[in-house]
Design a protein that fits this description.
By secondary structure, this protein is an all-alpha fold. The chain contains eleven helices and no strands.
Length: about 260
Amino acid sequence: MLGAASVLAWVMTTGLVLNLLLLAVTRPVRPTQAATIGWLGVVAVGNLVGLLLVYSALRIGKVGVVAPLASTEGALAALLAVAAGEQITTATTLVLAVIAAGVVLAAAAPEERPVIGEHKTRAAVLALLAAVSFAFGLYATGHVSSSVALPWLLLAPRLLGVVAIAIPLALTRSLRLTRRAVPLVVGAGISEVVGVASYAIGSRHGVAISAVLASQFAAFAAVGAYILFRETLTRLQLYGVTIVIVGVATLTAVLI
């Protein structure tokens, strides 16, 4: 309806309003260390660039394909965490690998019923680039989540989004919005804040596991796209989604 940039601008603006209310109510201690502020910068850029790329991909690709590809962010963030020294068990590693394989299978299956205006290859590239950007943002979020108050952690990407995206679009009269889109961008803005906050709290107990579990949005998005948009997934894509769901259940059992 609006284009990727306008959607991102309104999502970040909605989130910023919610975030400022949270700051006013909780009044947390402001981060002052240069290293911490640097990590918050990584959080902001990773989240903002990832959303812009994935919104762009969703304009030219199926949700059921783009979402699983973008959800590889969890596996990539887990690899970053392991590379940085985080310890996980062998069983957890195997389950993480299975989940990642399911995501790849769901995304890489041949397209049988393309939709009008679809550019699968371009959408796939954008989604994979979004996953890389998200992965750095997820890792940075996990890195500082235990040392920075949650409202300040949430503020970084939303503030950058308003300053770098929303305000320039408004000044150039390129910021678009329709009555039909209002509840969608507001709902997306609120959901994005709640999602990042939930991940930030969970990552205090382990970045790798929290990142992979957070990537399960792909399975829900694929089902939602089937119900709302009548998107049809291939048998291989359905196998991939099933592997992801079973893998998450197994991971939960391993952790318990």
